[in-house]
Amino acid sequence: MPARSEEELVEELKREHPELLVEAVIHRSKRVSIVAKREKILELARLLRDKYGFTHPVSAGAVDYIKEGRMQMIYYLMNPESRFMLMLRVDLPRDNPRMPSMTQVWEAMSFHEREAWEMFGIDFEGHPNLTHLLLPPDWRGGYPLRKDFKGEGVTP
Amino acid sequence: MTEPEVKPEVMRISWGPQHPMSGQTRILIDVDGEVVRRIIADIGFTHRGIEKILEKRTFIQGIVPIERMVMADTANIALGYVQAVEEALGIEVPERAKWIRSLICEMGRINSHLYAFGLQVECTGYFPAVFLWTTVDREVLLDLFEKLTGARWSYSFFIPGGVRADLPEGFRDEVKRAVKYLRRRFQDYWDAMVENPLFEMRNRGVGILSREDAIRLGATGPVLRGSGVDMDVRRDEPYAAYGDLDFKVITEKEGDCLARLKVRFHEIEQSLNIMEQIADEIPGGPVRTKVPLFPRSKPGVEALSRVETARGELGVHIFTDGGMKPYRVKINSPTLRNMYVFERLAELDKVLVADLPVILYSIDPWYLDCDR
Amino acid sequence: MAERFAAPIYGVIDYLLTWARKFSIWPVHFVTGCCSPEFMQVSGSRFDMERLGVLPFASVRQCDCLMVVGVISRKMGERVKYLYEQMGEPKFVVSVGACPTGRGPFYDSYATVAIDDLVPVDVYIPGCPPRPEAIIHGLMLLQEKIRRECGFRAGKE
After folding, report:
1. Which residues from chain B sit within 8 angstroms of residue C75, using beta carbons?
2. What ipTM was assigned to the predicted interfaces of this complex?
3. Domain spanning A6-125: which superfamily?
4. Mean pLDDT per segment of 10 residues, for chain B of length 372 residues?
5. C10 exposed, middle or buried (CB, 10 Å; 0-12, 13-18, 19+)?
6. Chain A touched by B68 (CB under 8 Å)
7. For a Cys staple, A141 with which of A154, B17, B129, B276, CB 3.0–4.6 Å?
């Protein structure tokens, strides 16, 4: 199957799977952003990997929008054929950030999800080893990358 | 991190963070006799919270902390950040500045690959001579850096809107002379490393990573290209002056430690070619556009810039909220991705304890980049 | 009477002892942060640390100098302390770079600590990263300090 271009991917996703998406936009050339529904994210991820060929995981990280009371988890993905960056986003409520772990689809998201867990406190259901990655194992200082994190030089 | 349970016949060895060959990380190894059953990378020993620090700095101040991510390759790292800032703030860069950026980035790439050579030879254990060669040859590049930017390693030379200064007089000739010298030296390296049967024995067929696994596990940089995947941001998504420059993307099929080393070797050749091209063909003109000292962003803009550093693809994703500081900076670091590949290698291929440092340094880890 | 003759002899012994000691500083192979490439350059042949008798060595128990090269994170901090405690006397600590000395560019980070909270330091070398000349100067200052303070009769006069 020939690799889809950015426009073709967005068109096809909007046409065939509107129930999985909140929105799909092209930011600029080679940057596509898809916002998924939280309950359907696993389904969409499997679809992206198996049907659309996004087999190359790049990274993952979160953003804390404190004023809007939400967090956004972003997965950066790539198709080795078409080579544009796909950002798969999912909005999570800030008071209870839980989502299924994408390690079930892309194994290599393990490190990035552990990082998001310790930095933002996002709980990934089904992650095999959700432990501290970068911070010391006895860290008690809270979630450093959240916007309301106060401790500069907190002693754990 | 909490340590998982150990099987009774397996012994767990803790390697690092104080070990000549481990670097600033701790690696837990489950060994069954001589065979490594499982590798667990306990990273985070150099975590400085750069992503949080960048939220507290203005756009231009942020160049200093982010450069400290990879000291041997600061040019590429700083370029990733500066390009993201330029995209987010809508700043144009003059053509000559782009060429100067490419020149310094290629010099940084050679500088960093020399580090990889030195350590890969050092950890095969029998000739530290090559390691000392690399320190001498790096001085050639460091002198050029110093002449151009005033600093040897962390030069903060790229700023939003261009570069800080123009090339000094006679710099192009010096670049050409350095290229000529380095070409001759790299022939020596090739003879001492790849042509050396002892070195080849320790590296060929060790730590094999297949093409499918490299893609699936998210490898990047020379690790990915050493497994035969033809991906390079410089060509796929040209930034700086790479659209106008003539270079090849190097791939090797074998996917073992020697293949990764060869990729770096041939990449250096390409980098030297690029340096020569730039010294010959660099266009004239200004080197920076005027940018206010504290530029203010528009709210709700985001910009993801990707650059190919010596270790692989670096992504810097900036989110703005209308202030003078970025709202959030997400750094996709290359070594973190390669460390995951390293963790999984023991399951993909038979790894012996003695080969472990060779494999670790064939992915060229830079833990400060990994931990941020 | 004996003391009158003993003093010059002690002086000679002291001289020899500190001379030997100051030209055999063995720092441990332990890098905490990003000044490591500059440290490598200093051990390379252009600047050549070994002419000062500085030879990086693998095991901490055989070393007498802990060179803390680069930023110390919270996780690394306890290792620094642990390594320092394992070293045999006499032991010296050199803080290389702005980060261990005063947390440098990461002064407001949640994850870094300054070296003064962990171990006593003999020589501070500022710079980010310090130039090779600065590192060599720092090592020479350490030699001076050994010359003055680590003799047989140190602290007895």
Report:
1. 44-45, 47
2. 0.86
3. NADH:ubiquinone oxidoreductase Nqo5 subunit (3.30.460.80)
4. 73 81 83 85 86 87 87 88 88 89 89 86 76 86 88 86 86 89 88 83 84 87 87 86 86 86 89 89 86 82 88 89 87 89 84 86 86 82
5. middle
6. no
7. A154
